# Entry
Amino acid sequence: MIYVYAIGEHGGRLTAFVKRGVTCAPAPEPDALLDHDRVVHSLMGDGAVVPMRFGTVVGDESDIRSLLLKRRKELRDLLTHVRGRVEFGVRAPQVSASTGRDYMHAKLEVDRLLAPLAELAADTRVRHRDTAYLVDRELAAAFQERARNMKLALSGPWPPYSFTGALRG
# Structure
């Protein structure tokens, strides 16, 4: 079996970055999760990558070739979208309200609060209270400074996990 960390490009061709000879998908334990992230992070130093979901394994080389061929357009589009960019995460303030109307007003207030960060981002993804921002590398320092000035909890920079659809093999 082959463990797939990410998809990228090498010499203009789609390439899977893998670990061969695994017997099964790793358990989601802290060391394995950190290893996966460390490898994907290091791959980003050489160019754009589409991180694969943790634990993605395929049977053999033909499965990898099939993945790259079958999803070629999607993968190239994703690589174009994340090229030169990193992900930051922000946890929005807790919204609490006693009525639906109050909740919607509070939610609009949070959106207004986070708007200055969205101005610096190429893309955003919102999941519950967490918002992920895809930011050009050259704007990363300005993004971090703005979040600090707004007194928001910020994580990152990360590989663009939230912007690649948690790709699986």
Observations:
- The chain has two domains: 2-82, 85-163.
- The radius of gyration is 18 Å.
- The CA atoms of residues 97 and 104 lie 9 Å apart.
